[in-house]
Amino acid sequence: MGFRSGIGFSAIAVALLGRNSAGGMAFSALLFGFLEVSSRALELIDIAPETYVIMQGSILLSSVIAYEVVRRLKLTLQSKELAKVVTA
Amino acid sequence: MKSKATKLLLNATYLLLLISIIRLITGATELTSVGTVSAALLLSVPIILAGLGGLFSERAGVVNIGLEGMMILGAWAGGFIGSQHGPWIGLFAAIIFGAVGALLHAVATVSFGVDHVVSGVAINIMAAGLVRYLSTILYQGGSWPGPSQSPDVDPISNLRIPVLSGGQIPSWNTPDIMGFNTPNFPGWQSPDVLTPIAEKHWFLISDLFGVLRGVTGDLSYVTLIAVLIIPLSFFVLWKTPFGLRLRSAGEAPVAAESLGVNVYAMKYAGVLISGGLAGLGGGFLAIVAANHYQENQVAGRGYIGLAALLFGNYRPGGIFAGAALFGFADALQLRDSESIHALILLVAAILGFLVYKNIRRGKILSAAISGVMAAGFVWFYFAVDELPGQLVTMTPYIATLLVLSLASQRLRMPAADGLPYRRGGMR
Which of A54, A60, A68 sits opposite B130 (nearest CB)? Predict the structure, then answer.
């Protein structure tokens, strides 16, 4: 495998996906690496291997959206419980 | 107190005088040749469009790192649709594709409140992957000549202004009214007045004529439109109620909301306009600057546009200055790498001017930094006879960032730029 360009740029995505924690980054780097290497198998069944880049992007976007939705959900639940305690 | 317009004209004259003197000293005639100026305009248009795109988004309070990805989408759509349905429809498709990328960004950042940088980076990654994937499919289907290249797009006709750049006034047949033969206008091919004088290399006069001819000659209609968007976006953002509301969403969204402004709608509008302009910039690259889409055609121009926006203090004029400087340096290094040597002297002179300006303003530290840089550049000019190729390709980036960062001392970004906002002050 030659020297790949654009690693630094992928690293931004990896760091963001890992939510800026060391362990998370290790996992997300592993995920991105896994996607990239296993994408070569796609060529065997005539699918463009570039799909892995799209997958990386959509995983990043959908996971940060999921984080945000969960955070908001937690906040609403908390405030509801708080309201119960206060009114009771 | 001089008016703004006189000041601008005065500064432009000084700059031309400076370039003219440097051309005399160094003998680099390409510095203001017709070809260089024309190429500089062509190269700066995509950056102008990207920068203006960023302007609308950031003024509405959404950081748009995804400009690059939106440009890639636009360039691809320009090549794909343009090669099938003609260049104008291709440009329209480029705008739509850019706006679709922006819509994704808007949904993620405005509706879901995701970190703006994360969303932008994700869009850049996805756009690059998506167009490569689609190109491969089209290539395998046999309709594209290569997996990274679209078929050719028909060219858009150029505007040649009569008198200034040897254009012609087309012949014109007057309708015969009630059988009378009215005289027909035969049409008139105007001579190219400016080019011969520009090639005489007279001091200042030839430079002025070279610039005029370069800017007016063989002007693509799209270039004209793109340049007109600069004053238009200033007008929209600063002189209309819509612009005021959009900027208020970027400065103080909660205050704007309390006055009845629909902040979400404003942010959506800003981001969508942003994507449309970036897409147009990409389409310009594919259709006007080249005649087909090619992979890596955008090559970081979205980021340069973003840099021009930031250092241009979030204003259309600043964006134009940054883009023009980059386009000029880029044109020089493409056309005649020896002229880059002269450009070093030009950068040194501009930095020298900044020293003078900073001292007058009483900013000794900034003046000292600029002074040291200027001295370094002068030394570099005399020490090196010919630049190595890698440095030549790097020069546009260095020159732009250096001059912009040292020239702009009082940057102020929109107060709520990049902050998450939810209606009703919810978190």
Answer: A54
